[in-house]
Structures are given as structure tokens and as C-alpha cells.
């Protein structure tokens, strides 16, 4: 079979890691007898600087015919971050109803956690982030600019449908893993939306008697992630809280260079979009030293979503094998290899 994939490398190291992910995925496709038909889009901050838009006006329409989207990263100094977020990422996530942002983390062989005495099993978890509503909202505004009474107001939107479907997804996922799910809210301080989330969480929990469920304040859960990560498996959280917890989860496992992410439309009515958790890393952009593993693992999530589970496992195993040998490692992993050298080593291992 053949799949049509939209490739959006974006900015900074997004471009470097995307090239390696494509290389590795193509090698897996060849080995397992399918093809990935890539179409490249130059949608980026560079394009914004030239045209005033991150993507063309009919960008969503252009993407709608693809099976999946693989995105590098967008954002670059000189273009405000809200432009790249609201000009590309959020419109794609919302237009294609990619309401699940799935961010699995695992300590991979040959890497060390900042939590030194922890085993890989203790550090394995997945953040299920609500990806379509919540705190990331355009509702609000600013008043009295420059006056003593200046203020800013920002609204959050939590719908019953939106909250219930993400929580249900997390419970279903927990059933396929260790059977534990924890929800992160802050209902003592945020007294309308968060208690609403908690209520729906309790309702859904009643439908899953075999799943161990727990509600936790986000501050306490953040501390637990560092002090008792073995007590955490599936975490479900709102758009903002899930965003924060997934960077923390990545940091306590292998670091940002290792954490993949999927913006998923579970009903498969629209393309899903896969990317690394990390951004465009302007501090190391153009140096050819970015770690491509997060992007390659995002590629394994894409293969799985396409139904190519065997190929996904082979790529994952290749990443593990190369990291375990430790000979080819980028600077963030303590080595001297370039992005392309690590990508090549993984690609060769996929074929072996
Ligand atoms: P970042 O994730 O780009 O970088 C944070 C730190 O981690 C930097 O020191 C960077 O060098 C390091 N790092 C990240 N990925 C790495 C990799 N693959 N290998 C080695 N080191 C790596 O986050 P930052 O600096 O806050 O944001 C930079 C830009 O990226 C901003 O414009 C931001 O808006 C954008 N961004 C875009 C995202 C996306 O496209 N989904 C997600 C997060 C940030
Ligand atoms: Mg983030």
C-alpha cells in the first residue's frame, strides 16, 4: 500500500530532524513493503516573514487530502511565538479535530535520567493532553493600555463533549497499559472549569471499574512526577496543564530530544499530525547537532496510526539498539555525532 504524507519541516532544527525522520521511515517502508508518498510544504516563520502568513489561506484544505501530517517544529526569533502557534499549529489541530495530544515518555537504553536511581519501568508514562479547547482560547482582551487601571482578561472554554472525550480516551488507553490513570486539575483555585472537569472525570471513571483512577492537584502531581514517578502511568490533563506536564515528563526521562507527540483524531475522519514535543531550538539551529530521536519516534507513532505496527516496532527497536550501543550519539546524549550521523545509524539498523 501507499500513504500520502504531508511533510512540514518548519523552522530551525525542525528542518534537520524532519530529514532524518523521513530517511528512517522510508527505510522501514521499503523493508515492510509499503511506500510513503511525501509532499513537502514550506510553511514556517520564514514564509511568514515573506508573506505575512504561516500557511496559505487554503492551507487546511490543502492538507485535508493527506493520510497523515509529519511536522518538524515552528517558531523562530523575530516572529512572535503566538504567530506560529495560532497561524499554523492550532488551526490544524482544531480543523482536523485532533483533540488528543498523546505524549508517551520512556527512558531509552543508553540514556540517563536526571532521576539517577530510577529504572526504565518506573519512568514509563504517557500524558494525554486535551488539544482542542481549554485555556488556549482567543476569548478575552486587553483594556486601558498604559493607564493605571490596565488589565488583561483571558477566558477558558471547557465543553462537556470536549472534556468527556479526552477523559474517555485516557481510560481506554489505561486499560491497554497498567490500568492506572490520574487527572491533573486545580479545583481549589480555578473554581468553575476545573470542578466541571473533576465531575466528568468521576462520571467516566464509573464506566471503567477495572481502571484505578485518581484526581490530583497539578502542583502535587508535578512534585510526584519527580519524587515518585513509579506511581504514575496515564496522566490526563487540560490543554495548558498537559503541555506543562509533558515537558516535565520528558525532562525526567530522556530529555526533550527524546519525546515524541501525536495530535490525534481518534475517529480517523481527518489526518492526524505527528511531531516532537520540543520546538525549533534556535540556540542550536544550523549546527547540525540536534537529536533526531524525538522526531523519529513521532514517526513510529505515525506508522502505528497508519496500521503499520510491525514497521513502527522495527523503527523503535532500531532506535533502542543504536542508543544502547552508544557509539553514535548527539551532544545532548553526551556524544559528538551530528544529526545526520545518528539518523543514518538508525536507518541502517532498521534494515539490519
Ligand atoms: P525548544 O524545545 O526549542 O528548546 C529548549 C531547549 O532544549 C534548548 O536548549 C534546545 O537546544 C534543547 N533541545 C530541544 N530539542 C532538542 C533536540 N532535538 N536535540 C537537542 N537539544 C534540543 O524550546 P524553546 O527554546 O522554548 O522554543 C524555541 C522555539 O520553538 C520557540 O519559537 C517556540 O515557540 C517553538 N516551539 C515550537 C513547538 C512546535 O512546533 N510544536 C513546540 C515548542 C516550542
Ligand atoms: Mg510544550
UniProtKB/TrEMBL annotation:
<dbReference type="InterPro" id="IPR050501">
    <property type="entry name" value="ICDH/IPMDH"/>
</dbReference>
<dbReference type="InterPro" id="IPR011829">
    <property type="entry name" value="TTC_DH"/>
</dbReference>
<comment type="similarity">
    <text>Belongs to the isocitrate and isopropylmalate dehydrogenases family.</text>
</comment>
<dbReference type="InterPro" id="IPR019818">
    <property type="entry name" value="IsoCit/isopropylmalate_DH_CS"/>
</dbReference>
<protein>
    <recommendedName>
        <fullName>D-malate dehydrogenase (decarboxylating)</fullName>
        <ecNumber>1.1.1.83</ecNumber>
    </recommendedName>
</protein>
<keyword id="KW-0520">NAD</keyword>
<dbReference type="Pfam" id="PF00180">
    <property type="entry name" value="Iso_dh"/>
</dbReference>
<dbReference type="InterPro" id="IPR024084">
    <property type="entry name" value="IsoPropMal-DH-like_dom"/>
</dbReference>
<dbReference type="GO" id="GO:0000287">
    <property type="term" value="F:magnesium ion binding"/>
</dbReference>
<dbReference type="GO" id="GO:0046553">
    <property type="term" value="F:D-malate dehydrogenase (decarboxylating) (NAD+) activity"/>
</dbReference>
<dbReference type="GO" id="GO:0051287">
    <property type="term" value="F:NAD binding"/>
</dbReference>
<keyword id="KW-0479">Metal-binding</keyword>
<keyword id="KW-0560">Oxidoreductase</keyword>
<feature type="domain" description="Isopropylmalate dehydrogenase-like">
    <location>
        <begin position="4"/>
        <end position="346"/>
    </location>
</feature>
<keyword id="KW-0464">Manganese</keyword>
Amino acid at each position: 500500500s501507499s500513504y500520502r504524507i504531508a511533510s512540514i519541516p518548519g523552522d530551525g532544527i525542525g528542518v534537520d530532524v524532519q530529514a532524518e525522520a523521513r530517511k528512517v521511515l522510508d527505510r522501514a517502508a521499503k523493508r515492510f513493503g509499503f511506500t510513503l508518498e511525501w509532499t513537502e510544504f514550506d510553511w514556517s516563520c520564514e514564509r511568514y516573514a515573506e508573506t505575512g502568513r504561516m500557511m496559505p489561506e487554503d492551507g487546511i484544505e490543502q492538507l485535508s487530502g493527506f493520510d497523515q501530517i509529519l511536522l518538524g517544529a515552528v517558531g523562530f526569533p523575530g516572529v512572535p511565538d503566538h504567530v506560529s502557534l495560532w497561524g499554523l499549529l492550532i488551526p490544524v489541530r482544531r480543523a482536523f479535530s485532533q483533540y488528543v495530544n498523546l505524549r508517551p515518555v520512556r527512558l531509552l537504553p543508553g540514556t540517563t535520567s536526571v532521576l539517577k536511581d530510577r529504572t526504565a519501568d518506573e519512568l514509563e508514562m504517557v500524558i494525554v493532553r486535551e488539544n482542542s479547547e481549554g485555556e488556549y482560547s482567543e476569548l478575552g482582551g486587553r483594556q486601558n493600555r498604559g493607564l493605571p487601571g490596565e488589565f488583561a482578561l483571558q477566558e477558558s472554554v471547557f465543553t462537556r463533549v470536549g472534556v468527556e472525550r479526552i477523559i474517555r480516551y485516557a481510560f481506554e488507553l489505561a486499560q491497554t497499559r497498567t490500568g492506572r490513570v490520574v487527572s491533573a486539575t486545580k479545583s481549589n483555585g480555578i473554581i468553575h472549569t476545573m470542578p466541571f472537569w473533576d465531575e466528568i472525570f468521576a462520571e467516566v471513571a464509573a464506566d471503567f471499574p477495572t481502571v484505578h483512577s485518581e484526581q490530583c492537584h497539578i502542583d502535587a502531581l508535578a512534585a510526584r512526577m519527580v519524587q515518585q514517578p513509579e506511581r504514575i502511568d496515564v496522566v490526563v490533563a487540560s490543554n495548558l496543564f498537559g503541555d506543562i506536564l509533558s515537558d516535565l515528563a520528558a525532562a525526567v526521562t530522556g530529555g526533550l530530544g527524546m519525546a515524541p507527540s501525536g495530535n490525534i483524531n481518534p475517529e480517523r475522519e481527518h489526518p492526524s499530525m505527528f511531531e516532537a514535543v520540543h520546538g525549533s531550538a534556535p540556540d542550536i539551529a544550523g549546527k547540525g547537532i540536534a537529536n533526531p530521536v524525538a522526531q523519529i519516534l513521532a514517526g513510529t507513532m505515525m506508522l502505528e496510526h497508519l496500521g503499520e505496527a510491525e514497521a513502527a516496532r522495527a523503527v523503535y527497536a532500531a532506535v533502542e539498539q543504536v542508543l544502547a550501543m552508544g557509539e553514535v550519539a548527539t551532544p545532548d546524549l553526551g556524544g559528538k555525532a551530528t544529526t545526520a550521523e545518528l539518523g543514518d545509524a538508525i536507518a541502517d539498523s532498521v534494515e539490519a
